[in-house]
Design a protein that fits this description.
This protein is mainly alpha-helical and 633 residues long. The protein contains 23 helices and 14 strands. The strands form 7 sheets. The protein has a two-stranded antiparallel ribbon. A two-stranded parallel ribbon has the order 3-12. It has a two-stranded antiparallel sheet with strand order 4-11. Bound molecules: 2-acetamido-2-deoxy-beta-D-glucopyranose (6 copies). One of its GO terms (biological process) is response to oxidative stress.
C-alpha cells in the first residue's frame, strides 16, 4: 500500500504519467479516474502510461508504439471487428433465419466433424506447436481460466440462471455421451468491456483482451515492466533469471503457489513450475516447450552480446537480446511457417512477406495497432490438426513411449525427465491430418483431467456465437466478393458431400456459423489452410506489420538493425532454433515443419545455417576499453 502510494506520488511529480480509458484510448481526467477507482474497475478500464519518448525502444507494456494513441496496443485494449456484430435481443446469440435458435453447438460439431486419428503425410507437430506459440503472444486465455477456476458452476443447478454461464448442452442422442451421463459441458460467456464494468450493459458487447496486441513475445517477457523486472530479469549481463536442473537451463521456479498454477503436476515427484512474468511458461505442452526454449535463447544471445561488447551495461544487453529474440521468432513465423501453410507465392502477392532480404518501411500511424476479433477465432481451426498423443523418441529416432497431450497441460513438472524425448518427437511425429477429421482426445478430452469431458471445437463454435459473429456467408462475401444465397453457392469453396452435412444441421445458408464453414472448406490454392481462415489471417498479418512502429524489418525504428544484422536474422529457421536451444538436438531436418524424408533428410546441426552475432559488435567498446583504467566505468 505504502509502496503503491509512493509510486503514485513519484510518477505524478517526475513523470506526469497519463491515464487512458482502455476501450476508447482517450485520456481520462483526474475526476474520471477517481470515479473508476471508486468503482474498483481501474484494473480493466484504466491504463497508466508514462510520457512517450519517440526514440525509446519497444516498451514491455506495448504503450507508446503509436505516438498519437499511446495506450493503444497495451493489455485490455479493444479488438476491432472485420464485420459488424450480429446479436439477438439482449445481446444473446443471433437466431436462425426462421427465427428459431441456432442448432446446438455440440450437435453441429458431431455432425460436421468426424473423429479419428489420421497422421499428416507432410507436416510435423512443430507446425501446431509453433503456431500456437506465436499467436499465444496476442491471445487471451482468460475465458478458459474463467470456467476452469473462477466460474466453475455452469453445469450445476446454480449455473442455469446465471448470465455468465453459457454451458453446452449435450443431446441425448450424442454419438459419444449417449453412453455416459454427461449432458453438459462447462463454458462461460466471453468477458467483455461490459461484463467487467467499463461500458454500459446496453451497448454491443466487445471483447476485452489481456495480452499486448503486438507480436512482441509478451507471453514470455510479460506485459508490464514491473512484472518483467520482478519475475524475469536477473539484472546481470542482460540475462533472464534461470536455474539449472537435470543439467539443463530452465526459467526460475516457484514452490509456494505451485499447486494453483501447475495444477496437474503429479506430486510429490513432479515439482517444477515456472515463476515467470504472469506465470505464463506453464501452459499446454506444445507452447510450454517453446517458451522454455525461447527463455534459453534470450540468455544465449545475451551471453554472446556481453562477451562481444564489454562496455555494454545490463540494460543495453537485455533489451538488445530481447529485440533479437523477438525478431527471430517473427522471422520463423512469417517467413517459414506461414509460407509453408499458406503458400509462399500467395503471401508475396498479398504483401505479407518480402521477396528480398532487405528492409521494409511501411509503417502507417493511421492504422491502429489492434487484433481483429475474428483472428483468434479462426485460428482455433488448428484444433483440427492437433494430435492427441505426444510421442517420444530417443536422439536416434527410436520410438520410446507416448502420453495423452491434453494431460500434460499445466504440468510443467513432467518435462524435467521427459523434455528430451518430447523434443525429439516434435520434429519426427506427423501433425494431425489436414483433413476434415478431429482427434478424439481434442474433441472429447480436450482439457485432460481438468474436466471430465470437454470438446474444444464445440467450445469454439459457441464462443463465436456469443462474440456476435455474423453468419459465415458474410465472411465469404467479404473475402471473395461473391454473394451467397443458396447452399449450392458455396460450391466454390466447399465440396458437395460436405454441403450435404451443412444442410443436415442448418435450414438456411445464412444460418451457418463461421467456424462451421471453416471446418468444411477446401484449402486455399497452393496452400493447406481453409480459404476463409487464410483471408482473415492475411488481413491481420498485414495490419500487424503496418501498425507496429517497432517492427523488426523497419530501417528507421529506434535502435533499428543495420542491414547486416537484418541479414543475420533472415538466416533463422526453426531447425536452427532447435539446434541452438532444443534439448539434446544434435541433428534435425533443415525444414523442420516438414517431415524428414528425401531432400529433407535429418542431418547434423553443423550443416544447418546459423546466425552470426558478430555483426552486433560495437566498435566503441574497444575504444572505451583502452581508456578503462582511467575511467569510472
Ligand atoms: C477490486 O477488483 C479486483 C480485480 O477485479 C478484485 O480482485 C478485488 O476483489 C476488488 N476489490 C473490491 C474491494 O471489490
Ligand atoms: C453489466 O452486468 C454485469 C453482470 O452481468 C455486471 O457485473 C457489470 O457490472 C455490469 N456493468 C455495468 C457497467 O453496470
Ligand atoms: C501481470 O502481472 C502484473 C503484476 O503482477 C499484474 O499487475 C497484471 O495485471 C498481470 N497481467 C495480467 C494480464 O494478468
Ligand atoms: C493423466 O495423467 C495422470 C497421471 O499420469 C493419470 O493418473 C490419468 O489417468 C491421466 N488421465 C488420462 C485421461 O489419461
Ligand atoms: C464442470 O465443472 C465442474 C466444476 O469444476 C466439474 O465438477 C464438472 O465435472 C465439469 N463438467 C464436465 C463435463 O467436465
Ligand atoms: C577514450 O579516450 C579518447 C582519447 O582520450 C577519447 O577521445 C574517447 O572519447 C574516450 N572514450 C570514451 C568512451 O571515453
Amino acid at each position: 500500500m505504502f509502496r503503491f502510494f509512493l509510486l503514485g506520488v513519484v510518477s505524478r511529480i517526475c513523470a506526469e504519467s497519463l491515464f487512458y480509458d482502455t476501450f476508447s484510448g482517450n485520456v481520462l481526467s483526474n475526476d474520471e479516474v477517481k470515479v473508476r477507482i471508486k468503482k474498483n474497475i481501474t484494473f480493466w478500464c484504466v491504463n497508466e502510461v508514462l510520457p512517450c519518448d519517440p526514440l525509446e525502444r519497444r516498451r514491455v507494456d506495448g504503450s507508446c508504439n503509436n505516438l498519437k494513441h499511446p495506450s493503444m496496443g497495451t493489455i485490455h485494449s479493444r479488438p476491432y471487428r472485420l464485420l459488424p456484430a450480429e446479436y439477438d435481443k439482449d445481446y444473446e446469440p443471433r437466431k436462425s433465419n426462421s427465427g428459431e435458435p441456432l442448432p446446438l453447438s455440440r450437435s453441429v460439431r458431431t455432425t460436421l466433424v468426424a473423429e479419428g486419428q489420421v497422421p499428416d503425410s507432410k507436416f510435423t507437430q512443430l507446425v501446431g506447436d509453433f503456431w500456437l506459440h506465436a499467436v499465444a503472444d496476442v491471445l487471451s486465455l482468460h475465458d478458459t481460466v474463467n470456467f476452469l477456476i473462477w466460474t466453475t458452476y455452469c453445469c450445476e443447478e446454480k449455473g442455469k440462471t446465471r448470465k455468465e454461464c453459457i454451458p453446452n448442452i449435450v443431446p441425448d442422442d450424442d454419438p459419444v455421451h449417449r453412453f455416459s451421463s454427461i449432458r453438459c459441458l462447462n463454458q462461460t460467456r466471453p468477458l467483455s468491456f461490459q461484463s467487467v464494468g467499463c461500458l454500459k450493459n446496453d451497448t454491443v458487447p466487445e471483447r476485452v483482451v489481456t495480452a499486448t496486441v503486438y507480436f512482441d513475445l509478451s507471453h514470455i517477457y510479460g506485459n508490464s515492466l514491473k512484472e518483467l523486472n520482478a519475475k524475469g530479469r536477473l539484472f546481470e549481463k542482460g540475462l533472464l533469471k534461470y536455474e539449472v536442473e537435470n543439467g539443463k537451463i530452465w526459467p526460475p521456479s516457484i514452490t509456494i503457489k505451485q499447486k494453483e498454477v501447475c495444477l496437474m503436476n503429479q506430486l510429490p515427484h513432479e515439482t517444477r513450475c515456472h515463476d515467470t512474468p504472469n506465470l505464463s511458461v506453464n501452459g499446454v505442452v506444445g507452447t510450454n516447450i517453446f517458451m522454455i526454449w525461447t527463455w534459453r535463447f534470450h540468455n544465449r544471445v545475451a551471453n554472446v552480446l556481453s562477451k562481444l561488447n564489454k562496455c555494454w551495461n545490463d540494460d543495453r544487453i537485455f533489451f538488445t537480446a530481447r529485440d533479437i529474440t523477438i525478431a527471430t521468432s517473427m522471422q520463423i513465423f512469417l517467413y517459414e511457417l506461414m509460407p509453408t501453410l499458406m503458400g509462399k507465392y500467395n503471401l508475396l502477392k498479398e504483401g505479407v512477406i518480402l521477396s528480398h532480404k532487405g528492409f521494409r518501411d511501411i509503417y502507417d500511424e493511421h492504422v491502429l495497432p489492434q487484433i481483429s476479433l475474428e483472428f483468434p477465432t479462426v485460428l482455433r481451426w488448428a484444433h483440427m490438426i492437433q494430435v492427441g498423443k505426444q510421442k517420444m523418441y530417443d536422439t536416434k529416432g527410436n520410438y520410446l513411449k507416448q502420453h495423452q497431450a491434453a494431460n500434460l497441460t499445466l504440468r510443467t513438472g513432467y518435462l524435467v525427465d521427459n523434455i528430451d524425448y518430447i523434443t525429439q518427437g516434435v520434429f519426427r511425429q506427423p501433425s494431425g491430418g489436414f483433413d476434415y477429421i478431429v482427434d478424439p482426445d481434442i474433441a472429447e478430452l480436450g482439457l485432460g483431467d481438468l474436466q471430465r469431458a470437454f470438446d474444444l471445437l464445440t467450445n469454439d463454435l459457441t464462443k463465436g456465437r456469443y462474440l456476435g459473429l455474423p453468419p459465415y456467408i458474410k465472411y465469404r462475401q467479404l473475402c471473395s466478393g461473391n454473394i451467397y444465397s443458396t447452399f449450392e453457392d458455396l460450391l466454390d469453396v466447399i465440396d458437395p458431400q460436405r454441403i450435404e452435412l451443412l444442410k443436415e444441421k442448418y435450414k438456411h445458408v445464412e444460418d451457418i456459423d463461421l467456424m462451421a464453414g471453416i471446418w468444411l472448406e477446401r484449402p486455399v490454392k497452393d496452400g493447406f489452410v481453409p480459404v476463409t481462415l487464410y483471408c482473415v489471417v492475411v488481413e491481420q498479418l498485414r495490419r500487424s506489420v503496418v501498425s507496429d512502429r517497432h517492427w523488426y524489418e523497419r530501417p528507421n525504428r529506434p535502435n533499428a538493425f543495420t542491414p547486416e544484422q537484418l541479414l543475420e536474422i533472415r538466416k533463422t529457421s526453426v531447425a536452427q532454433f532447435l539446434c541452438s536451444v532444443g534439448d539434446s538436438v544434435t541433428e534435425i531436418q533443415p525444414h523442420a515443419f516438414l517431415l524428414p524424408g528425401p531432400g529433407n533428410e535429418i542431418r547434423s546441426c553443423s550443416e544447418i545455417e546459423k546466425i552470426n552475432l558478430e555483426v552486433w559488435k560495437d566498435r566503441n567498446c574497444d575504444m572505451e576499453l583502452r581508456n578503462e583504467s582511467n575511467s569510472q566505468f
